Structure formats: structure tokens, C-alpha cells
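Quick check before the chapter quiz. The format below is the same one you will see on the exam, so make sure you can read both the input and the output lines.
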Amino acid sequence: MPLPTSRLRTLNDAPPNAQGRFVIYWMTMSRRLHHNFALDHAIDRAAEWRLPLLVLETLRVDYPYASDRLHRFLLQGMHDNALAAQSLPLRYAAYVEPRHGHGRGLIEALASEAALIVTDDSPSFFIPHMLASVAPRLPVPLEAVDDYGLLPIRSVGKACPTAFVFRRLSQKRLPPLLLERPRAEPLFGRSLPQLPSLPRALTERWPALSLHELGRLTDALETLPIDHHIPPVALTGGAQAAQMRLAEFLAHGLDRYQDDRNHPDRQGTSGLSPYLHFGHIGIHQIAHTILAREGWSPDRLALNPRGAREGYWGVSANAEAFLDQLVTWRELGANTLTFLPHAEHFDTLPSWARASLLKHAQDPRPYTYDLATLDAGLTHDRVWNAAQHELVTTGLMHNYLRMLWGKRILEWSATPQQALTTMLALNDRYALDGRDPNSLAGITWCLGRYDRPWAPERPIFGVVRYMSSANTLKKLRMRRYLEAHSAPTGQRTLF
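Here is the expected output.
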């Protein structure tokens, strides 16, 4: 099946190079060699031109919050891809910047030998700015492929103010889209010419790393100019680990998801968000694997969808609940970043939320904490401290507690603007799934985005939804969680 046109954007006006030696797939967000629309398209373009395919996966050292934690997770994924590529009829090249700015000019140099370049289209992090910057400088077409969600990001055409609005719209549009899936094995039955050697740029000025060198660098991060204060975590990155996590969730988590996901003691979440963020697994594989497990067929979809959270998919309640998180909430964040520029800024919040928070900005705070104290998890609130400790030590935070975590920061900050800055700083520095549309959606939800006014009006919060640790302890099973994460993180000097 050719790539749906709704998933393709050409980012410049350059013509293809008829003398090009290869097609490039510049892998930036969908960092895997299977279930990947962008890879499918690059293969199709290479086959059309009867050219070899060069898959280039790059890693800068100057991206915001670059650290040992994030770098190791990414490098583990690159190692998986290098290993998998050995048995595929393509040439894989992994380039890791050894110092700031060393990779500058690489794409342009390779473009001079290429017929065209395919890359990933994503609203995440610095990717939109990077693509917009490099596209005009290329002598060949730069084709960006949207592999982010079940719903092509730009097909909505506007920012949706609530999950209900987005859910109702997506439910109406999803049925034909569910028939559009990337290939599980993109090169099965395909024959491409082999690229006999890497381009000179990748052997001389910007040398690609071998499989062995990637593995060695994963354990030698101190040689790179990144933040060494944020250590790696136990969770392993890469496509292989992502597949294992999905299999584990299907075997032991999905059937109890609805009841267990909000209780920290039960560890009922999928654990897939870091792998989705780094593209080590894709939403199409996850969604269709779950639907197949449920014995699903398209005729089970609701005939007249109205945006309800339950009853649309025609599957079990647990699968319905998980698919709503996977599709509605994850893709809502991407919708917001695409159609609401600078969604991380306070002045883009809904007008009612801004007005209410600013009205109460001068209210006395029961406690105020600076960024260093919050970073160290040394507040008076043991639930909040445990959530922060989990984030710092594991790179993860329980989904429900991330909402409470953000609400407490709002209550303890001098202004709501400062609260937003603090949430982003802590989340994006430590979380494996930070710097992501989904985590930004969760953070700004704490300040009223996607929500409605709630009575009664309260100090500090105004009519923004209130949450407390005391109520959380009453509602959730947390004894084992608090025992596991009660140790303070200790004083650090990051801020």
C-alpha cells in the first residue's frame, strides 16, 4: 500500500537528483526498522528509483536536556537498529556527535550525493524547527512522513480545546484510517540494490559508528559533552526492549488495566511511554496488536460515535480504556503542539484558566519551595516527595501521580507562570518521556488546559481543578509505592 497522502509533506521545492547514488531515510523520531510509515515510504522511493537505501540515524549532543540518561536510552536503540540492519538489504549508519556542532553540515553533504531525503514529521521537541531550518538548504527534496498517530496530525486542521472534542472528531475519521498500517516487515519480498560502501562524508569527516563502537560508547558516556549529573536508569531502551514491554503488558497488564492503572501499588500502567517517545515502538503496532488480541473487526466500531470514552471500539472495557489513553490523550497533545504555537507558554492556556490563576496569583501560599528544594524532593509532602523520587531515580512517574505532582507545584510556587516553568524543567530534565507532546499536555492540564472551571473557587487555584495528597491517599493504594520511593533524593546542585 502506498503512503497515504495525508501523511506526507514535501518541505522544500528542490527537484530530485537524477544522478543521485542512493535514497536517504534520515531517522529522527521513528527510531525503528519496522512498523514505520517513513521507512516504508523511503523503501518505496528507493525501489522507484532503483537505488540503494541509506538509513541515517543521528544523535546530537546539544539538544535541550542532553544527559547520560537520555543518551544511553537512545544509544541502546541505535545499537538495536544497527544489529537488525545487518540482515536487511539496506545500509544503516549511526552518527553520534562527539562534540558540539561537529555534525553541522552532515545532511547537506550527504544530500549532494542523494536522489532525495525522507525523514520523520513530528511536532515534538526541536524537530519542527530543525526541519524548517535545514529544508531550504538542501539541493534535493526533503519529504517528511507523519508516523505519530492513528490520525494524521494535520488532518484535524485546528487545535481541539478538550479531549471530548478531539475524541468525537477522531472517532468519525478513524474507520478508514485503521486500514492504513505500516508494514511489520518493510523489506519482506522487496529487493533493493546494495550500497557497496558508505558515502565519503560518513567515513571521513563524520564517521559512522560500528555496532561494536555503539555498544562501547553506551558505557563511555563521560567522553561526551552532555549533562553527567543525570545518570542512566535501569530501564533499557531500544526496539527489542519495547517489544518485550508490549508483550509483558499484553500478558499481565491489559486485562486489569481499567482497575489497576490509577493505583501506584499495582503498577497497572503499560510502561510504553518512553518507547513511544523515542520511536522505539509505534502506535500502529500497539493498537493493532491489542485489537487483534481482542478479536476485533471494523464492524464492531460504534456506528454513530459521539465522543464517549467507552463503547467506540467494541472491545473489552480494559482495552477501551487503554486505547482512549493511547489514541485520544496522546494524539491530543500532538494536535495542540501542531496548531497552537508555543503551547508550553502560560499565555496559551484557556482564557478562563489564565484569568482565574492570575486573579489568585497574589494569594498567600501555605508553603513555597524553590526549584532546588523541589528537585531534591525535600518538601513536607511525602506523597509528592515519593513521586519526585520516582522521577529522579527511574526516569518515570506514575500517570496519576504526575497530575498530583503538577497541582502541588502550582500551590507551592510564587506565581502560576513559575509553576509551569518548574514543572517543565523537572519533567523534561528527568523523565524518559519528557520533552513530548503527551507530557506537555499533562503538565498544562494541571493549569486548566483541556478542562473546565470547577466550583467552589479556591485560594491559589481559583476555579482550576484542585487535587490534594490527602485525598489521593484515601483514593489510591499506595503503601508499597511510598515504601519504595520514600527515600529523599538528597541535595543536588543542578539548579
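If your answer matched, good. The longest helix spans residues 317-339.
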